[in-house]
Amino acid sequence: MLRFALKCKDIQIRDPFVLPLEEEGKYYLFGSTDKNIWGPGTGFDAYVSDDLSNWEGPHPVFRPPADFFADANFWAPEVYAYAGRYYMFATFRRKDNNRLGTAVLASDRPLGPFEPLSEGPVTPEAWSSLDGSLIIDDAGDPWMVFCHEWQQIGDGEVCAVRLAPDLSRAEGEPATLFRASEAPWTTPFVSPRFPDTVNYVTDGPYLFRVDDGELYMLWASFIDNTYALGVAKSESGGILGPWTHQPEALYRDDGGHGMVFRLFDGRRALAIHAPNRTPEERPLFLEIAERDGRMAIAGPLSD
Q1: Which residues contact 90 (CB under 8 A, 6 or more apart)?
Q2: Is position 277 within any domain?
Q3: How many Å apart are CA 151 and CA 85, to the nearest integer?
Q4: How far apart are CA 19 and CA 24, in angstroms?
Q5: pLDDT digits over 182-237, tens only?
Q6: Is pLDDT at 93 greater than 50 in this prediction?
Q7: Residue 68 to residue 122: CA distance in whole angstroms
Q8: Is 229 within a domain?
Q9: Which of 128, 204, 238, 272 is a plausible cystine mate for 258, CB 3.0–4.6 Å?
Q10: CA dihedral of residues 71, 72, 76, 77 (deg, nearest 10)
């Protein structure tokens, strides 16, 4: 039996990702859990709940080995049950070239320990890339959708690349799905580091299908320098799109980096962090539903 000691307000976490295991009746919560995620990386922790309100943890699920390729910016772990094991897609800042990249780790258990599977990041070595997310296409082949970072290219991109069947490496070249400025709801991000450039941010893409087979994507950006979450839909039903953006942001109250999961009662839930300020960020769970061909928030789930 789980011993619950924490509420959502007690958990500092960014980029929340929920893995529901119905056979256990438990929700596993992963995310960026370093107290200062902008500095040295120590690893990832996870929490466990049966109701999304009362949590047990933290459980250390990943600590880097001595020869790990990164030592800073441990971000956005996403954990998937796939082919009999659990796989973590997470972003790290490389030691060799100081660029971000998404690597794949694996474990036999949802609470780890997770160990490196890929030889460093599976994103391109010359790119600064982040927030890789796993999606399986209609043929059963794995792909990763990720961001080509705005700090490198100005107008951030969401890209996709096919993965090897064992998820250990990319196969082929990435395809650009869209750029941040193409969405009608985004505005330029004014950064004190780049005051003289026009920047558009892409952050945290996550793909999911609804009951009729339509393929949607959540992704985050900014509206007047406030963090926000948008939705796009694949017009072809496939990963490569083309992608059409909902005209208005799904959530624009300084929260985002979302993902969607099924509650044990069958409803669909959205997980985001809010506000987008360290150390105030907390997990927030909302009910989400498709209405007239668009995704909409139906109401809160957590206290």
Answers
A1: 44, 62, 74, 75, 76, 77, 78, 102, 103, 105, 132
A2: yes
A3: 34
A4: 11
A5: 999 999 999 887 777 789 999 999 999 999 899 999 999 999 999 999 999 999 99
A6: yes
A7: 15
A8: yes
A9: 272
A10: 10
